[in-house]
Amino acid sequence: MKNILLVRIGELCNASCFMCDFAQHKKKRMLSKDEFESIKSYVIKEKCELVRFTGGETLLNDNVAQYINELKQHNCVTSIITNGYYLKDKYKDICENGLDQVIVSLDGDIPEIHNMVRNTEGIYEAAVEGIRLIKRDFSNVVVRVNTVVNKNNYNRLLKLYKLLNQLGVDQWSIIPVKIEAGYWKDIEFNSYKDSYYEFMDNLNLDKPRLLGYSKQWAGRDEDEIKEYYTSGKTFTPKHRCNLVKYLRFYNPFDQELVPCNCAVHRLEDYNKNISATQGIEWLFNNIHQYCKGCEPINAYISEHIEELDKDIFSF
User: Fold this and answer.
1) Is the C-alpha dihedral spanning 164, 206, 52, 140 positive or negative?
2) CB 98 within 8 A of CB 76
3) Measuring CA to CA, how many Å separate 62 from each of 14, 31, 70, 101?
4) Distances (CA, A) of 106 to 148, 165, 223, 274
5) Of 133, 212, 208, which Cα lies nearest the Cα of 165?
6) Which of 13, 35, 229, 276 has the most crowded Cβ, counting Cβ within 10 A?
7) What pLDDT is stored for residue 275 in this prediction?
8) 99, 38, 32: which is closest to 257 by C-alpha?
């Protein structure tokens, strides 16, 4: 079974998204070369098959292409998550150094929506152009788009779907915004649900491939749809989480190693005083007790863990 490591490469971000606070981070730390050497040793020792750099904004770290190159020398599959603002300027450097997958955040089919969600002028235009350039010049690089569903785009996902098809995007991961109860209250429930089912009923293009439960982002049944609409809590795996056996998220700045990329955002709910190894064991045994909802791709892979063996990019 595949071992996957997600690494926070920096805490600085140029975008001020409403659902994220990296732009407000005061320390603005970046992964240094010395810190990377320690991570590389861990990757080799644990035989990690996929390393995904996340942030903050990954392309603000000037060493990211070098890190990708060094991991590729150890036969490690590499991936980055980016908001896409710097992608058109830096795509050649990262792709020529061996990048296998780029994950670009795109929350709208038009600039007015995406730029508003990300609170950054020009970020839509830059991300779309970056995707076009990669598809033109590096067809071997898997291009995935992550979309955070929110009040500004929930009824325009079909339009975004068609745009991603035109761009040649390979994969699409849809993530319902995790937010407090009452977020959706000013949208009438039946209208919300009708938009959701219309989306599900019209996914008929060859690309992009929807990952995990992305098609069912609001819920797999009526109870889950209503629960998310009213409480803001997304659905979880139907049984004990299997993904935590194979996935690790490492924050080098606080030396936190946790067994889920969702859990890293909820560490205030866990006992931070336990060691990394004890923390993994403890979280594995208690994850459902504290889980505030999965991303659709996490829930699906947890229930279909064999998919990782078929395709490392299924996660």
Assistant:
1) negative
2) no
3) 14, 10, 14, 18
4) 8, 13, 28, 37
5) 208
6) 13
7) 46
8) 38
Q: How far is CA 86 from the centre of its chain?
A: 18
Residue 109 near residue 67 (C-beta atoms within 8 A): no
Distance CA 312, CA 314 (A): 5
Q: What would the two tokens of residue 46 be?
A: 């644990």
Q: For residues 19 and 177, what is the distance between their CA atoms, to the nearest angstrom? A: 7
Q: What is the pLDDT of residue 273?
A: 45
Q: Residues 215-272: pLDDT tens digits?
A: 999 999 999 999 999 999 899 888 878 888 899 888 888 887 877 887 666 555 555 4
* Inter-CA distances, 258 with 27, 41, 54, 249, 281, Å: 22, 18, 15, 5, 9
Q: How far is CA 303 from CA 57, 130, 232, 309, in A?
A: 30, 34, 22, 14
Given a contact cutoff of 8 angstroms between Cβ atoms, the answer to whether 104 and 58 are in contact is no
Residue 89 is which amino acid? Answer: D
The residues, ordered by sequence, that sit 6+ positions from 192 with a Cβ below 8 Å of its Cβ are 154, 184, 218, 229
H or E segment to which residue 50 belongs: strand 50-54
pLDDT score, position 13:
76
What does the chain come to in residues? 315
Question: Where does the chain have alpha helices with state H?
Answer: 33-46, 64-72, 87-96, 111-117, 123-137, 157-167, 189-201, 222-231, 276-290, 296-303, 307-310
Report how far residue 248's alpha carbon sits from residue 263's, in angstroms, rounded to the nearest whole number.
10
Tell me which residues of the chain have a pLDDT lower than 70. 1, 19, 21-27, 263-292
At which residue do the structure tokens 């033109």 appear? 136
Beta bridge partners of 50: 4, 77
